[in-house]
Amino acid sequence: MFSDPLTSISLIVFAYLLGSVSAAIITCKLMGLPDPRTQGSRNPGATNVMRIGGKKAAAITLLGDMLKGLVPVLVARWFTGNELTLALVAVAAFLGHLYPLFFGFKGGKGVATSLGAILGVSWPVALAMIVTWLIVAYGFKISSMAALVASALSPFYFWFFSGSTTYMIMGTFIAVLLIWRHRSNIQRLLEGTEK
């Protein structure tokens, strides 16, 4: 269990609150772009920001979303090496992005934030996911499909690189939620209309 319950709970709350900060909305506001929740796919994520404001705005959003997943896990590592705490901190940051406290609990799909969180937990797993994404994206030219495949394989990567049941469960939970959040993309993939 937790090495120090109060510290662990504080880290989990911090992770959720940081995850709730929308990089897409803040970037668009600072760059004088429309609110991403009102344009394009209406998703506050890097892909939609690229449609609205181009590559620079998208890159800033992507970096911001990854950092809010990575930073809480690195902070948690500073305080404790407890696997359960690290896993819950990663999940909390991810859930903050999906259901942000500061934006009416309506967030993005969580690809970049989950990758950042996983990077903090296990860089080999994150690297394997990035390689998977690149291979699928290069082969099929569909970003959402690449993200779904990479995420779906993450529990197996955790098993291979760490052998940790806790991290495998964490990876499975994140993958299931990512698939759920991409259900409209999956429908379009099945229909052959996904961009």
List the helices and strands and how they pair.
Elements (H helix, E strand, L loop, with lengths): L4 H15 L3 H8 L15 H8 L1 H25 L3 H16 L12 H11 L1 H18 L2 H19 L3 H17 L1 H9 L4
Helix pairs in contact: 1-4, 1-5, 2-4, 3-4, 4-5, 4-6, 5-6, 5-9, 6-7, 6-9, 7-8, 8-9
Summarize the structure in words.
The chain is globular and about 45 Å long. The protein has one domain (5-191). The termini are far apart. The chain has 195 residues and is mostly helical. The protein is built from 10 helices and no strands.
The 3D shape can be described as globular
**Total discrete domains:** 1
Roughly what percent helix? Answer: over 70%
For the residues shown, what is the average pLDDT?
A: 93
Structural class determined from secondary elements: mainly alpha
The number of distinct helices, counting runs of at least 4 residues, comes to 10
Which stretches are poorly predicted, pLDDT < 50 over at least 5 residues?
none
| Percentage beta strand | under 5%
- Record field, number of beta strands: 0
Q: Which series of helices and strands comes N to C?
A: HHHHHHHHHH
- How many strands, which pairing sense, and closed or not: the largest β-sheet? none
> What is the terminal-to-terminal distance?
44 Å
Determine Rg (CA atoms, Å): 16 Å
